[in-house]
Amino acid sequence: MKKKDKVKFSYKDSLKSLDTEETIDLLFYRPIGYFWSVLAYRLGVTPDAITIMGIFLGVGAGVCFFFPDMWWNLGGVALLMLANSFDSADGQLARMTHRFSRLGRILDGLCGDIWFTAIYAAICLRENFYGGDFFTTHLWAIWVLAAVTAIFHGIQAAMADYYRQFHLYFVKGKEGSELDTASDLWDKFHALSWRRNPWQKLVLMFYTNYTTGQEKRTPWMQRFRRELKAKFGDDAVPADLREKFRAQSKPLMKYTNILSFNTRTIALFVAILVFRQPWLYFAFEITVLNVVLVYMMWRHERICRRFIEEVKEYPASEETPGAQA
Predict the structure, then answer these.
(1) Among 52, 77, 188, 230, which is 20 to 30 Å from 126 by CA?
(2) Residue 321: pLDDT above 50?
(3) Mean pLDDT of the chain
(4) Alpha carbon of residue 321 to chain centroid
(5) Can you list the alpha helix ranges (DSSP code H) found in 20-101?
């Protein structure tokens, strides 16, 4: 095994793809995450350990948002930004060291869910204790609003991640993307034993259901994926077809970024620090982000529908796996 001081990384190695990176991340979170990831590597800290540390920071931010005091809220902002730099670092370290795992991907997804669960709960309790007359009189109202928001939040985040991974498949191929299929995941799930692998089976069950939901919401993408596999095999899509789809998909990446962390937290910080009305953040997620979600899905499905015909008409080659299927 090579000594750690002989292993050299670069900032570029830590990035997914410039197609999918957001400007705020490139200017702020990725450089900080790169610092944390290099430090973690030298200290022998794993990507999963960084993720878990980030979870505690994000939960701490939620606690700070419970209090109506500005200094507490600013502390919450700082903790959440630090947590996101850790969330960036775990992926950057995994890419630099090629230490990818499905468990790591699941933990990374759970990280954001746990953060926002804590934040949602803090907002609800804050409105119940310190909010206006409506939320202090009708205690249930803010919790119902939070529950509805959480459902939409989950769908928005899942679909943004799914489209990003599909785009990366055309940029970097199967190895450069974390694109899974529910059928393959169910096969792996049934191969595990509840007695011998209870934790792995439980985690895989939730992740497979998550992937199943993504597939159900994208019928034309699934038809496109089946056509690609039938024509070219698992990972042999011709370079010109990859580039053509990439060009069509790339403009939609800005919508996946809007549905990700940065836009959400800017809206959250404005609602808490400027308007002093945390419930406005829920209204933003339900209205603005849902409009973005629907538009993004509609655009992407149209692209996939067009490309199904392109794949069917693409000339078969004897060198192309699946061409004779």
Answers:
(1) 52
(2) no
(3) 91
(4) 31
(5) 23-24, 30-43, 47-66, 70-97
pLDDT band of 8, cuts 50, 70, 90: low
- For 200, phi then psi, to 5°, come to -65, -40
**Joined tokens for residue 36:** 């944390």
Nearest to 235 by CA among 225, 243, 223: 225
**Phi/psi of residue 233, each to 5°?**
85, -170
Q: Which amino acid is at 9?
A: F
Contact 151, 284 (CB under 8 A): no
This model's pTM is above 0.85:
yes
Written as one letter, the residue type at 269 is F
Q: Name the phi and psi angles at 17, rounded to 5.
A: -170, 140
Return the structure tokens found at 130: 């310190």
- C-alpha to C-alpha distance for 268 and 123, rounded to whole angstroms: 10
Distance CA 165, CA 108 (A): 14
| Residue found under tokens 């902002």 | 77
- Structure tokens that stand for 29 in this block: 């979170």
The crossing angle, in degrees rounded to 10, of helices 102-130 and 139-172 is 150
pLDDT tens figures, 204-242: 999 999 999 999 999 999 999 999 999 998 778 999 999
